[in-house]
Amino acid sequence: MKPYYDHAGISIYHGDCLEVLPSLLVDSILTDPPYGIGESRRRVMSRRRVMSRRREASPRDYGDFEWDSEPASSEEIMACLYAASQVIIWGGNYFQLPPSAKWLVWNKLNSGDFADCELAWTNLPGAIRKFDFLWNGMIREGRERGVPRVHPTQKPVALMKWCLSQLKPGIVCDPFMGSGSTLVAAKDMRSQCIGIEIDERNCEIAATRLSQEVLELYGRDA
Fold first, then answer.
1. Which domain holds residue 105?
2. Number of domains in the chain
3. CA 102, CA 121: separation in Å to the nearest integer?
4. Three-class secondary structure of residue 18 per DSSP
5. Local confidence pLDDT in tens for the 222 residues of the chain
6. What are phi and psi of 107, to 5 degrees?
7. Cα separation of 186 and 30, whole Å?
8. Prediction pTM value
């Protein structure tokens, strides 16, 4: 199968993870599958307004909002578990997974009716670990401050870099790639990474983000 994008150790495959994943040889899985909580629908339909310093921001319209109407299937989750020796699954509390000693906790340092934290299940050895990173609607820290999000459940690149630091070196795969934050993080860390995404729009978004990273790198070196 020909990659949708392939550059500098980062590849994207447009397709169903159940069809693509078995054909790949990877060392780790790091992914954020749909939880089935209708997150995109709520963001589009809600009348809620997020306050900034001087104005109100309407919820961003991400287009088709049925993608999160159902959670990733048990077959898809099991495919992730069997594909690699190291596995991190965000939203692990929404799925039937084995007991884990090492959960990853993202403290979003936010307010209002947003969740305080998000949880990732892992099969890694060790104790529970916590990562503090502000992500309160449009109020965010790091290099993504002020940059419009391109996916309703987009994860910060800094968070995914922290997740990658929990893994032993090797080829990482994100079978539910979304907007490509895992791939951008891997590119920053000079790691090999493969993304799989069933929605071609997200493949294009991720490819664009990766291309922009290259332009920014050249700009810094100039």
1. 5-221
2. 1
3. 7
4. helix
5. 899 999 999 999 999 999 999 999 999 999 999 998 665 444 444 434 433 333 444 444 445 555 456 899 999 999 999 999 999 999 999 999 999 999 999 999 987 777 899 999 999 999 999 999 998 766 667 777 656 666 677 899 999 999 999 999 999 999 999 999 999 999 999 999 999 999 999 999 999 999 986 444 434 333
6. -85, 110
7. 11
8. 0.82
Q: Which amino acid belongs to residue 139?
A: I
Q: What is the CATH number of the domain that holds 158?
A: 3.40.50.150
Rg (CA), the chain: 17
What are the structure tokens assigned to 69, written together? Answer: 């109407």
Q: How far is CA 98 from CA 54, 72, 123, 140, in A?
A: 47, 16, 8, 33
What is the rounded CA–CA span in Å between residue 25 and residue 85? Answer: 11
Query: DSSP labels for 157-181?
Result: HHHHHHHHHTSPSS-EEETT-TT-H
Secondary element (H or E) of residue 10: strand 10-14
Structure tokens at 49: 């307004």
Assess contact for 210 and 183: CB atoms under 8 A: yes
Nearest to 188 by CA among 162, 150, 154, 155: 162
Amino acid identity for residue 59 in this structure: P
Report d(CA 33, CA 168) in Å as an integer.
22
Reference 174, options 43, 80, 49, 111; nearest CA is 80
Q: Which residue has the tokens 């922290």?
A: 162
Q: How many CB atoms lie within 10 A of CB 113?
A: 7
